[in-house]
């Protein structure tokens, strides 16, 4: 499998090379040159597979020229054995035709574990063989950070630097990052917002001169293709459990950086019968406004009860645009250059294609709390605020009665106890056993100004020899 950049000018890479990078050298994002296709018969065969087996089936075509089948199998089995539920991604029915896909049974209680437990092991595998050391840089609004640290902490060949917006993540999210000890693990609390952190990561890919000459820079955010690849699997897993390929399924996805829902789009392009993908946003609703106005306009970030989705520059939307503009790298280059200077509008053809598959809905904090309370009252099911946004959007979407709607439950409610309290639920969420002493563990992090030079200087000083 070859990977090409959305901006058309960077070199074509293989899987191993794409794993060991982030942004392409032309500023674009890597995507597969072609997508593997699964026929209805192939999908029917997936019915009896456990999660790791299904992951092998879906992921093999993307990696097979770099990772031999038996090695991939061992990595996948080990990855998904880390999850605290035998089904790995169990589903719960919360209303007639409404399902919740629980993606929070991994070590850090968010959907990020599905990709980052795998990415950490893939990096370890590749770097050991190449005798290479790398620097990882990531931006987090709360969940990617802890999942990346947890996924990569066993790798000897990395230094990892995670930037989070100071004071803007929940206490549990912060503790999950800052209590993991290791002299190669660095948490930087940046006095800015998530967009600032993400912009610093992207700028560092564009100018890597602050790094020692023998280190390359690797991304753990969803700009890294391997993140998206791993997330495609659970769309197949859920759809097959609910009757695919005989039945079409809709998915509602709490959205920020557009990585998770883009994985759903790819699943559809690979043959999964997806009726609709619902973009569920909080009040940081850039993507909802794209669908309703055809214009992609930055907004001032609001601090919400769903902090992980407090994002206004949605990285992976570029990957969708690449398809919508006929995979024309020059057109994307031009669009993105204009976006750097201000708002951009999309052509009618692109917008009508988007609307054929995607719906969108914006859910503010009051509606989020109301949905958490309503779901609790109707079936004593506790949603975290991000998942509640997905459920609210799912309930709002007008779909044929024959189509089951699956909301991706992207985080465990115990990561957001303050939101659960604000929503007025009778019970308090309880952290799973392995995190019960989280608040007794010592923390280590560095508060830094919202300045690229300060962040890069800190990194340069702290990379292990
Ligand atoms: C709990 C949670 N839900 C939803 C999202 C949005 O996912 P994406 O950025 O892939 O759209 C995030 C973070 O990205 C998250 O941490
Ligand atoms: N919500 C994320 C933000 C980063 O998104 P990513 O999927 O690109 O890593 C977080 O919780 O950190």
Task: Note the main attributes of this structure.
465 residues, alpha/beta, Rossmann fold, 6-stranded mixed sheet, 5-stranded parallel sheet, binds pyridoxal-5'-phosphate, binds ligand LJ64HWYM
Describe this structure in words.
- The protein is of the alpha/beta class.
- The protein has a domain at 79-109 and 225-422: 3-Layer(aba) Sandwich (Rossmann fold), CATH 3.40.50.1100.
- The protein is built from 18 helices and 15 strands.
- It has helices spanning 15-19, 40-45, 51-63, 69-81, 112-130, 143-152, 171-178, 194-206, 225-241, 259-269, 286-293, 317-324, 329-341, 348-357, 365-379, 385-396, 417-422, 452-462, and strands at residues 3-5, 30-32, 91-95, 98-102, 134-139, 158-165, 185-190, 216-219, 249-254, 274-281, 295-296, 344-345, 358-362, 405-409, 446-448.
- It has a 6-stranded mixed sheet with strand order 3-4-14-9-10-13, with helices on both faces. A 5-stranded parallel sheet has the order 8-5-6-7-15, with helices on both faces.
- The two termini are 34 Å apart.
- The mean pLDDT is 96.
Low-pLDDT segments, ≥5 res: none
> Looking at the chains present, what oligomeric state does this protein adopt?
single chain
What is the CA-CA span between the terminal residues? Answer: 34 Å
Task: Assign an overall shape.
Answer: globular
Strand order of the largest sheet: 3-4-14-9-10-13
By CATH reckoning, the class of one domain would read: Alpha Beta
Mean of residue pLDDT values? 96
Q: Strand-residue fraction?
A: 15-25%
- Each distinct ligand: pyridoxal-5'-phosphate, the ligand N[C@@H](CCOP(=O)(O)O)C(=O)O
Task: Tally the beta strands.
Answer: 15
Q: Could you give a short account of the major beta sheet?
A: 6 strands, mixed
CATH topology value of one domain: Rossmann fold
Question: How many DSSP H or I helices?
Answer: 18
CATH structural architecture of one domain: 3-Layer(aba) Sandwich
C-alpha-based Rg, rounded: 21 Å
Helix content: 40-55%
Class by helix and strand content?
Answer: alpha/beta
């Amino acid at each position: 499998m070859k990977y090409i950049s959305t901006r058309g000018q960077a070199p074509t890479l293989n899987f191993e090379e794409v794993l060991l990078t982030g942004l392409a050298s032309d500023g674009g994002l890597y995507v597969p040159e072609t997508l593997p296709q699964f026929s209805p018969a192939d999908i029917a065969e997936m019915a009896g597979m456990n999660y790791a087996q299904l992951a092998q089936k879906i992921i093999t075509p993307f990696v097979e020229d770099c990772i031999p089948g038996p090695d991939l199998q061992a990595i996948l089995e080990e990855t998904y054995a880390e999850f605290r539920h035998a089904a790995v991604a169990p589903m719960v029915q919360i209303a007639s035709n409404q399902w919740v896909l629980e993606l929070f049974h991994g070590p850090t209680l968010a959907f990020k574990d599905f990709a980052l437990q795998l990415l950490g092991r893939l990096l370890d595998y590749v770097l050991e063989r190449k005798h290479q050391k790398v620097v990882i840089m990531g931006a987090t609004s709360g969940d990617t950070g802890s999942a990346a640290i947890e996924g990569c902490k066993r790798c000897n060949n990395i230094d990892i630097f995670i930037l989070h917006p100071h004071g803007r993540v929940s206490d549990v999210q912060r503790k999950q990052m800052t209590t993991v000890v290791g002299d190669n693990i660095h948490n930087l609390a940046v006095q800015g917002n998530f967009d600032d952190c993400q912009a610093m990561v992207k700028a560092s890919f564009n100018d890597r001169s602050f790094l020692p000459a023998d280190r390359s820079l690797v991304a753990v955010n969803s700009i890294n293709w391997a993140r998206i690849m791993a997330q495609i699997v659970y769309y197949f897993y859920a759809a097959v459990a609910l009757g695919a390929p005989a039945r079409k399924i809709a998915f509602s996805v709490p959205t920020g950086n557009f990585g998770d829902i883009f994985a759903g789009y790819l699943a559809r392009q690979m043959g999964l019968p997806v009726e609709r993908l619902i973009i569920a946003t909080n009040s940081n609703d850039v993507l909802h406004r794209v669908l309703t106005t055809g214009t992609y306009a930055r907004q001032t970030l609001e601090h919400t009860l769903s902090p992980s989705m407090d994002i206004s520059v949605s990285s992976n939307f570029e990957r969708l645009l690449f398809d919508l503009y006929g995979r024309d790298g020059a057109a994307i280059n031009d669009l993105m250059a204009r976006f750097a200077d201000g708002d951009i509008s999309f052509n009618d053809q692109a917008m009508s294609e988007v609307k054929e598959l995607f719906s969108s809905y914006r859910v503010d904090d009051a509606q989020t709390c109301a949905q958490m309370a309503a779901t609790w009252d109707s079936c004593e099911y506790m949603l975290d605020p991000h998942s509640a946004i997905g459920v609210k959007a799912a309930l709002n979407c007008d779909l044929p009665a024959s189509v089951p709607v699956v909301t991706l439950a992207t985080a465990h409610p115990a990561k957001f106890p303050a939101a659960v309290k604000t929503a007025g639920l009778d019970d308090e969420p309880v952290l799973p056993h392995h995190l019960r002493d989280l608040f007794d563990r010592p923390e280590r992090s560095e508060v830094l100004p919202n300045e690229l030079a300060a962040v890069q200087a800190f990194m340069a000083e702290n990379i292990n020899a």
